[in-house]
Design goal:
The chain has helices at 15-29, 89-101, 112-119, 153-165, 206-209, 226-229, 252-270; strands spanning 2-3, 66-67, 77-84, 134-142, 150-151, 178-184, 189-190, 199-203, 214-219, 277-278, 310-311, 317-318, 320-321, 326-327, 332-334, 339-341. It has 348 residues and is an alpha/beta fold. It binds 2-acetamido-2-deoxy-beta-D-glucopyranose (NAG) (3 copies).
């Protein structure tokens, strides 16, 4: 649910609860836990070795992903974007192309639309699959930081409310198949950013916003914590001079955001109101389809090893093709085979 931090219950919790959450998670899902190089849970990074022993570390018979009868996004999904703060034209282009690539079924393999096929495997009560169609909706620029440069989980609701109630060109209100994506520029701090999350998703509260709208926030970490949130295009100091991958679109912060956006969109589609697809003992500790595969970008991935990815001619690293660009996006959980899958898997 929150990218980089697997339990929503750990959201706004005091440190002792967070510890409890983590303990429960580890007990609940055994070896399968998303990996990011958080400073506080640095493990021995000597596991960065290439080897078959890590094959499908993101798989476990202990993972009991369940459907909790809530709605999923089965009709054409429209993504309404709020650009909060300062965004360059080229940064917007990269992100727009990623979203447009989800339904671009003719892209070169392995493709972003191939990646979305794992998400499409999930269904609702009536047996309807997640929509294969994802398109860009309206956009709203919040250039002047309407709610400041430090946002809380609560003030995010206000940012969304401002966008849907703006006097000029408000975002459409689309609770059924709209998905609201709040993207913050590299000079904006959001509660828990960099210490435990790189993004998260939830839904707006009618009491605050007037509607229940599924939304995700993802931040550009380029200035604040690229080693955590734009990993592996940046590497934290404690990992001892390991060389970062060269990012496919020449923008470490934005290329790092792409995987987080993919993570949140996959989870929003399968668990938009936090009552559909998740693992874990109860609704306060949901572990969702992308949480289970965080840090895994290719066959053999696990721990700080990304798995087998691809090298482009220009020396950049990616694992899937969009319409024109290349992207590196984490895999998601496949409940049919019970492990993480992606379009660049070597053995499928
Ligand atoms: C990390 O691994 C090295 C070599 O295997 C070992 O000597 C060291 O004690 C380990 N450190 C931790 C914190 O586990
Ligand atoms: C819909 O979901 C079912 C169950 O997971 C799966 O077998 C089927 O292939 C899915 N259809 C599409 C078009 O993805
Ligand atoms: C949904 O998207 C498809 C394209 O994938 C389009 O043909 C169809 O008309 C759309 N349906 C609605 C209700 O917008």
């Amino acid at each position: 649910m929150c990218q980089g931090f697997s339990a929503r219950g750990c959201f706004a919790a005091p440190p002792s609860t967070v510890l409890l959450c983590l303990t429960l998670l580890v007990l609940t899902i055994g070896p399968v836990i998303g990996w990011r190089p958080w400073p506080q849970n640095r493990m021995n990074v000597s596991d960065y070795t290439f080897g078959d022993s890590k094959k499908f570390e993101g798989s476990s018979e202990f993972v009991k992903l369940r459907y909790h009868m809530g709605p999923v996004l089965t009709t054409n999904i429209t993504v309404h974007t709020i650009w909060y703060g300062k965004w360059e034209r080229n940064q917007k282009k990269i992100i727009r192309e990623f979203i447009n690539s989800i339904s671009a079924v003719n892209s070169k393999q392995p493709s972003v639309s191939g990646w979305w096929r794992t998400v499409q495997l999930y269904t609702d009560q009536t047996g309807s699959n997640i929509s294969k169609t994802v398109r860009l909706g309206e956009e709203k620029n919040d250039r002047f930081y309407s709610h400041g440069k430090s946002l809380t989980r609560l003030s995010i609701h206000s940012v969304i409310k401002s966008a849907i109630t703006a006097k000029t060109k408000p975002l459409p209100i689309n609770p059924r198949n709209g998905l609201y994506l709040l993207l913050t520029s590299d000079d904006v701090y959001v509660q828990d950013f960099c210490t435990s999350v790189c993004g998260f998703h939830y839904f707006t509260f009618p009491s605050l916003v007037g509607y229940t709208l599924p939304y995700a926030w993802v931040g550009n970490s380029a200035k604040l914590c690229p080693g955590q949130c734009a990993y592996p295009f940046a590497v934290p100091e404690y990992m001892g001079g390991r060389k970062p991958f060269k990012s496919p679109n020449g923008d470490v912060g934005v290329d790092g955001m792409i995987s987080v956006i993919g993570h949140e969109m996959a989870e929003l589609a399968t668990n938009p109101l936090a009552n559909a697809w998740y693992a874990g003992p109860d609704a306060s500790f949901p572990v969702e389809i992308a949480d289970l595969c965080e840090g895994i970008y290719g066959t053999g991935g696990g721990g700080s090893y990304t798995g087998q990815v691809l090298d482009a001619h220009d020396g950049t690293t990616y694992n899937m093709n969009g319409i024109r660009r290349k992207f590196l996006v984490q895999w998601v959980w496949n409940q049919i085979v019970n492990y993480c899958t992606g379009p660049n898997a070597l053995d499928q």
